[in-house]
Amino acid sequence: MANMGYMKLIFLGPPGSGKGTLAARVVDILKVPHISTGAIFRAAIATKSFLGLRVKAIIDAGHLVSDRITIEMVKERLAQADARQGYILDGFPRTIPQAEALDGFSTVDKAVDLDLSDALVLERLSGRRICRKCGFTYHATFNPPKKADICDTCGGEIYTRDDDREKAIQERLEVYREQTAPLIDYYRKKGLLVEVDARPTVDLVVENFRKALGL
Ligand code: AP5
């Protein structure tokens, strides 16, 4: 894949549409950091930091962390040296106020929307498994580890996220429809929206992404 220079990308799309999986596949090629707000929150929960203790119940229930906390966290992260030239922001912004705040402290080159139906979201999230040590994402059916419950790459333990239970998934989809889906129009009106069909295999989604961005 040709590198077309540093880009500031945001990944939109419902929970489980494959934002993290796609980001992990293209991050080395784009040579920008992959910044996932969900991953930052989960790391804070794992270390039982003040932030982690505040957000754990909210995330497990499938609700959104407050705009104030999230915006502040992203603003600090984007000020770090590795993110100044470009980044993939995965899972931020998720509300109109977050998008407006981002406009105040960064420019965005493209907003990539990964489109997937609720039925496929449910199938992907209920089968998702993650390595506790290195964070690699598996799927029980589509991409299982070679040995059950053990990470192929680092030998870490594989677990299911607390917010990947059906009740929390339904809540996340509801929150997505109400608060995050309006961002599609927000970025379309700015002429920044790039739509990628998230239904095919991971290799094809990477290919669709590449074509959609003209890489
Ligand atoms: P976050 O971690 O961002 O969760 P999410 O948006 O719900 O996204 P996911 O990580 O669930 O899915 P994904 O799209 O990355 O899919 P993945 O690649 O894993 O956020 C978690 C929580 O943190 C939020 O609910 C909220 O509480 C809080 N939060 C985060 N950001 C916030 C913000 N900005 N404001 C407020 N609160 C915030 O893929 C899913 C599965 O499908 C995997 O098993 C994978 O192997 C498989 N898969 C992927 N692609 C394919 C494919 N093409 N074919 C088959 N299987 C595939």
Description:
The protein is α/β, with parallel strands linked by helices and 215 residues long. It contains nine helices and eight strands. A five-stranded parallel sheet has the order 2-3-1-4-8, with helices on both faces. The longest helix has 15 residues, at 166-180. The radius of gyration is 17 Å and the shape is globular.
Chart the SSEs and their pairings.
Elements: E1 8-12, H1 19-30, E2 34-36, H2 37-46, H3 50-60, H4 67-78, E3 87-90, H5 96-105, E4 110-115, H6 118-126, E5 128-131, E6 137-139, E7 158-159, H7 166-180, H8 182-189, E8 193-197, H9 202-212
Parallel strand pairs: 1-3, 1-4, 2-3, 4-8
Antiparallel strand pairs: 5-6, 5-7
Helix pairs in contact: 2-3, 4-5, 6-7
The structure holds BIS(adenosine)-5'-pentaphosphate.
BIS(adenosine)-5'-pentaphosphate is lined by residues 13, 15-21, 36-38, 41, 58-59, 62-65, 70, 91-92, 94, 98, 124, 127-128, 137-139, 142-143, 163, 172, 201-202, 205.
